[in-house]
Write a structure and sequence with these properties.
The protein has about 160 residues and is an alpha+beta fold. The protein is built from 4 helices and 6 strands, in the order H-H-E-E-E-H-E-E-E-H.
Length: about 160
């Protein structure tokens, strides 16, 4: 069940991206709002799938050394390949983890799924262990659906 605080973020994103007709502007607005949800988010961003490779999109946080990620690499690649959300409580115990920061302790990745196609993903790192909950996953999955629907509209109008 999504609580009122999470529901408010979902509604704020739905409203904020409604009038965005540029993909970068839409994603930038959404990621800024997502990042403000918690002080425990230490890297918050999108990766977009382009020609079979995940490419970093708008994000908030320190520069990432992983601007491109192959689908057979990392938690990001696993999420997109399997079309599932992944929460990792301790990234140091997950051999798939591609370190962007030595401080990262936990991660959540939620794919942007459009039917059989994946457009990209939401990726959030935290410097706190076991930071992400199932409620967060549910919230981000709903946000992902909003983003996918807007991306489809924006991409048709290009």
């Amino acid at each position: 069940m999504i609580d009122d605080t999470r529901r408010q973020l979902i509604d704020n994103i739905r409203i904020a991206v409604l009038d965005k007709n540029d993909e970068t502007e839409l994603l930038t607005e959404a990621i800024k709002l997502i990042d403000t949800f918690s002080d425990g988010f230490d890297w918050t961003g999108f990766y977009l799938l382009k020609d079979g490779i995940l490419e970093v999109g708008p994000y908030v946080g320190p520069e990432t050394p992983h601007e491109k990620i192959e689908l057979d690499k990392g938690i990001c690649g696993a999420s997109v390949s399997q079309k599932i959300s992944i929460i990792v409580d301790d990234v140091n115990s997950d051999p798939r983890f591609l370190a962007c920061s030595v401080n990262t302790k936990s991660e959540i990745v939620v794919p942007l799924v459009d039917g059989d196609k994946v457009l990209g993903e939401i990726d959030i790192d935290s410097n706190q262990p076991s930071f992400f909950t199932n409620e967060d996953r549910e919230m981000f999955e709903e946000i992902a659906e909003i983003i996918v629907n807007r991306l489809k509209e924006v991409r048709v109008n290009v």
